[in-house]
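Problem 12. The chain below contains 446 residues. Write out its predicted structure in token notation.
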Amino acid sequence: MQAPPAQPSILPVTDSATDSQHWRACFAERPDLLQGPSRLVEFRQQALDRLDKTPFPTRRDEDWRYSDFTKYLRQDFLVRDALVPDIQRADFEIPDFDGFVLVTVDGAFRPALSDDVPGLHISTVEASLEQEPYAFWLDRTLAELHAPAENAFVALNAAFAKTSLFIAAERNQRLGKPIHIIHLATRHAGPQMLCSQVFVMMPQGAELTIDETFHTLGEGKLVFRNHLVRAGLSAQARLEYRSIQDEDRRDIHLSNFAADQQAGSKLDHARVDLGGVAVRNNLSVSHKAAGLETSLNGLFFARDRQRIDNQTFIDHAFPHGESNELYKGIVMDRGVTSFNGKVMVRPDAQKTNAFQQNDNLVIGQHAEANAKPQLEIFADDVKCSHGATIGQLDEGPLYYLMSRGITRGEGLAMLQRGFLLEVLDTIDSSSIRNYVERKVLDKFNA
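Solution.
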């Protein structure tokens, strides 16, 4: 059973963490951020400069109307260098997982704790930024982090991330086994902002499956994980990327995932959120050519006073594109969830098929679910639909199960699992699916 979430209000309340001068002071205490390739140091300094011009989002921003993260920033967060604690990797591995394992600690890639993956280039951004054929893609991708459309958390991440994980496949390479990235965080005496990054370069015809999980070590105050993933899929590339988040109930998790897709590529992304006191996921996919597929699936479960928010954006800019989006969640007690999904179909994106669905199961009088599906269509030869449902549990099936000798608690768990089964079935790996189901069951039983 998880411990009840610590209330952030017990920490010293200041406005320093919403002030760019606070982060400049933290940056000045990190001389290691001025080491490495000169281009990367320049990127970090540019990100710090952008924080001066980019306020942190509040409820006044339409895309953040359900996510009041400013109240969590009113603390003296520090951004520390990565530690090297004594770690038993087996404690965090997924049972029956047949694949390769990579480990990051406080955002830094740890080769000594990771497997060698045949045929893949797995290293840090620092080590790869001046190597071809990786330098051009990394340089362009890092530069895009400074785009005006990016939020202040992306700028903060770009300024403080160090020795980030970089994964690059070879052309037409098909890795037969998946990769499991174990992201570990360490606690300290004060609240910590942790900036982690994963970059995935998929050249033409490459195929790869990545699963990432998040864990926190030791005792101390809360960890605010600011996580960023950038993926580039060239023509005919295929990437499956699954994020499974079940962090401690005192912690805060914010992620920014963005992918670019070229012709004939396919992206399958799945997001599972069970832990954390406050969670915010920003997911953006850009179609850069015709004839490609995107599939986004999400499963979330909020209870007590948890807040879980998902914001997605799919940009159809070329014809014959397909996207399917399914997010399903359960909210109970005084939990709050929100889904804001936007699909853009631009004038040249004829013959587009785009489907989006968000379903929410609300249990209890004080639980709250918010849904805002959006379609913006500027082409006339398309098939597009979107929908959202928010409803309570039907007592009829529950009564039937109880009449057959099943307890109310067991019946609730069975019906809730059935509600989420549509998303669980999109996970084709039995070890990952069983791992997620066990996590969900633990949450039912909490």
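Discussion. The longest strand covers residues 192-202. Students who got a different answer should revisit the alignment rule from Section 12.3.
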